[in-house]
Specification:
5 helices, alpha/beta, single chain, 2 domains, about 35% helix, five-stranded mixed sheet, Nucleotidyltransferase, domain 5
Length: about 150
């Protein structure tokens, strides 16, 4: 039988640990470790890239109502439209081959917009969400201008 004082200490520790953000309910620790074992960004490999057609790591495009994520699967780039809150899970599920430059992703905003107030607010919120997720996953963000 565990003494009440010890049990209370364990519960307090677990609560503090969960609130610290070190434990995520949405993803297992293995998912985040799997992304973190990939090398940090390797600037020498991508520093001279000036065209997104040559970019091999994930690309995040913020639109008026969703975001699109592009990644390379073999020679072709695949695209998937998702909500910003789904980005973390999506990036964690990408295979290691989608990260040849290490933990770095580019993000951009679609150059075409309705200009409506709601669209501007959505893009602003999406930008903050994307940047927060990349930071939480220790993925270097590389902002690219739209076409």
């Amino acid at each position: 039988m565990v003494p009440a004082k010890t049990l209370k200490s364990i519960v307090i520790f677990l609560i503090a640990f969960c609130q610290s953000g070190l434990l995520s309910c949405a993803h297992s620790a293995d998912d985040k470790v799997r992304l973190k074992v990939r090398p940090p960004d390797m600037k020498a490999a991508f520093l001279m890239i000036r065209n997104s057609d040559h970019w091999r790591n994930p690309i995040i495009q913020i639109n008026d109502a969703t975001i699109k994520v592009g990644w390379h699967a073999g020679k072709d780039r695949q695209w998937k439209e998702i909500q910003p809150d789904a980005l973390e899970e999506f990036l964690l599920e990408l295979p290691e081959s989608a990260w040849p430059y290490g933990r770095v992703a580019i993000w951009t905003e679609c150059g075409v917009s309705s200009g409506a107030k709601e669209a501007r607010q959505y893009r602003q919120k999406s930008r903050r969400t994307v940047q927060g997720i990349l930071k939480r996953l220790d993925v270097t963000e590389n902002r690219w201008p739209s076409a």
